[in-house]
UniProtKB/TrEMBL annotation, chains A, B:
Pfam families: FAD-oxidase_C (PF02913), FAD_binding_4 (PF01565). InterPro entries: FAD-bd_oxidored_4_C (IPR004113), FAD-bd_PCMH (IPR016166), FAD-bd_PCMH-like_sf (IPR036318), FAD-bd_PCMH_sub1 (IPR016167), FAD-bd_PCMH_sub2 (IPR016169), FAD-linked_Oxase-like_C (IPR016164), FAD-oxidored/transferase_4 (IPR051264), Oxid_FAD_bind_N (IPR006094). The keyword Flavoprotein applies. Belongs to the FAD-binding oxidoreductase/transferase type 4 family. The keyword Flavoprotein applies. Its cofactor is FAD. Keywords: FAD, Flavoprotein. This is FAD/FMN-containing dehydrogenase. SUPFAM superfamilies: FAD-binding/transporter-associated domain-like, FAD-linked oxidases, C-terminal domain.
Amino acid sequence: MLNPADEHFVATLAQSLPEGTIRAPEPRHLEEPRSRWAGLGGCVALPRSTAEVASVVRACQAARVGIVPWGGGTGLVGGQVMAEGPAPVILSLERMKAVRGIWPSENVLIAEAGAKLAEVRAAADGAGRMFPLSLASEGTCSIGGNLATNAGGVNVLRWGNARDLCLGVEAVLADGSILGGLKRLRKDNTGYDLRNLLIGSEGTLGIITAASLRLVAPPPVTGAALMVVEGPEQALELLALAEALAPGCVSAFELIHRTGPDFLAETMPDLRQPFAEPPEWLVLVELGLPHGLSAAEMLEDLFGQGAEAGLVSDGLIAQSESQRADFWNLRENIPEANRLIGAISSHDVALPLSELPGFIDEAGQALAAMGPFRINCFGHLGDGNLHYNVFPPKGAARADFAGQAYAIKELVHDIVHARGGSVSAEHGLGRAKTGDLARYGDPARVAAMRTIKAALDPAGILNPGAVLV
Amino acid sequence: MLNPADEHFVATLAQSLPEGTIRAPEPRHLEEPRSRWAGLGGCVALPRSTAEVASVVRACQAARVGIVPWGGGTGLVGGQVMAEGPAPVILSLERMKAVRGIWPSENVLIAEAGAKLAEVRAAADGAGRMFPLSLASEGTCSIGGNLATNAGGVNVLRWGNARDLCLGVEAVLADGSILGGLKRLRKDNTGYDLRNLLIGSEGTLGIITAASLRLVAPPPVTGAALMVVEGPEQALELLALAEALAPGCVSAFELIHRTGPDFLAETMPDLRQPFAEPPEWLVLVELGLPHGLSAAEMLEDLFGQGAEAGLVSDGLIAQSESQRADFWNLRENIPEANRLIGAISSHDVALPLSELPGFIDEAGQALAAMGPFRINCFGHLGDGNLHYNVFPPKGAARADFAGQAYAIKELVHDIVHARGGSVSAEHGLGRAKTGDLARYGDPARVAAMRTIKAALDPAGILNPGAVLV
């Protein structure tokens, strides 16, 4: 059993560290974007170095006090807030945000965990390189949090998720030891892959303090288009056409149901929308090409081939950077519109590509039988990753349907699982989906996870209640 | 302590499995390509199903008998042969070689561990797709072995190593439980990354029985060239030019020192060589481009820009598939020539790209001070991965220098380590490099590896003596 970070513990901890390191938590340290949990915290620790992180961990280990690692606070599954149990130490990496080095000729950048994703991207840009991880929350989320949750976003199709963009991590383990892994290497087969074990472990196996990141050369020729498709099946066929036209050069391929533009019109009437009357289904496709090719021509080819095959009925090819930005604003503001409307239940699911249309049909029909819900289905089609969120009918409030939230979630996740999918594609398990792991997880896998957690963190001080309960 | 797979154990095991599953080991099960170890084995188990693999593991677990997993036998660090200790069961996956399914529209293929790499590649080709892992030993090595060792090869620069090409694994753990992980998903953030923990663990944490693999669309336009450079520094600058010309489209970038062509002339005089007099340093560059571009034109551009910058003095652009094959034959036959000459010490090292030229200089000078050795330095420059092999002077035999082998290895590895490199880039640790892990490994990392090994395989039955001793 863990002990609370009580007054005595907090006072002792504060004395062992430089002044200002241990403070009272601010509201932002106890909140999360969906307001489903209110966090507890005896204090917040704001270390300025890896050695200070290790000191905090050792003190917590000795006193059996829990630690909740905190990055930018943008996680959607409650991994950053502990709502019950003995008050933990909230360990925020926000003062460790240095870019320790950048090696453009090696395509490598080393950043501390508290650096914001936007700062990492800007540092890469400044060196003529690109860090491809791209999320709507890039101005708030931290690279440490991105790695701890193996964040995804819109460019996974081409460059992979956070895991694929990380060459190595420095981390503090539960015993206070510092794992040094900041090599600037593409290849290193000297033993077990602890980097990937820590990435996606949501702070339950160690605290990532810095990372060696992979940069890429930005594609010299880029372009984007919105294309109107009849449905998800046609969207997938259009994706196959795009990949055949420009193999490896499709940087993003996003699916947008008209509920998204409708919600935007309702909540952000000033946002410029590309279509006066939103079509039922849209895809947003972005290409990144080598020199010597024209993105607009290739997108026209794609449109032409798509129209000929009966897949595409209308479309817009961005004629300027500002039009391209409009297309992306449409896409990137959908999560905020969702938040303003207020979902009854939100789902971040992945399916085998060929199961996507069947899932959308089946889940839509099953939900229609339950009630007059509005469904916003959008996301990273190229990755098989849908954000499938269920809302009350227009005029009703989410609170009126709170009693159905669990049943809706179970219904959606059961269909996903039956079709070989995942109930957490890119958000992680946090505290929201620990029950799903028990329900859907492969028993041998869950048992091995428990064995590893017990071996590396026997007292269970690291992010108690997250991932495994 | 482990027990030997003695006559009684083998007889009992044989009775519990279908006839023909348990046999006497053949010579190939006890050999490895460099003839440094002769393996032990009480028997070889040849299961035909994952359930049979689990039966073998449970029997070995109950009797505390070691298991040496065996793929294609091509490993270069002795991971597949146990030369001392109580005779183990050799568990060969060679009869589990089915391609269980292929989903071209999803770019996914599921194969059993015993499928040869060439068979997996052919199955992908047959579906209009490509499995990009490409090694000289593809006709012999198995996909299970490729994953267990996180194999690399010539296309890592563009498509990553075995780890990056695997979506999920099915494996048998030390307790005989079957981990089911064959999802056809790009994204799955439901807990710890056991897939990557097993990949590269060289059979010491579990036995991979099948894998879900990532396919790609083959680039429609390809081309290759050999270019003569003054040295590794210029080769790196040429790589940067190539990446700027065709970002993300450089499929391979191999460095070849003239020792390679010289050894080929000595050992395989009939092999057609592109240059009558081999240049001191060559690079082999391969591009894979979208439709609408010409590989020959782009390689000419690269040559022109390289010549203008003083990086390239001569070159050949493949004018036909057969000339391209000749270029690759030159590269792919170097390991066999090395084997025929007989190295005193072979090294598979990775360095930060900008440290490569300094390493080659420093190691060359240090070795010259030790003796009149011939050095064959070649490999995957784009990945920072060199195969740096040290040979006796012409006319002398490797046996004459056996006493210096350890000192040579230590010298090379010390320089690599001091420059932030890795002493095993793509071959793994096996039994050859366990001492290097102790010498160069981050102590917290090695301790965490031991903790994980002890937790998942407390009796130590899985590949005893490999990776960790």
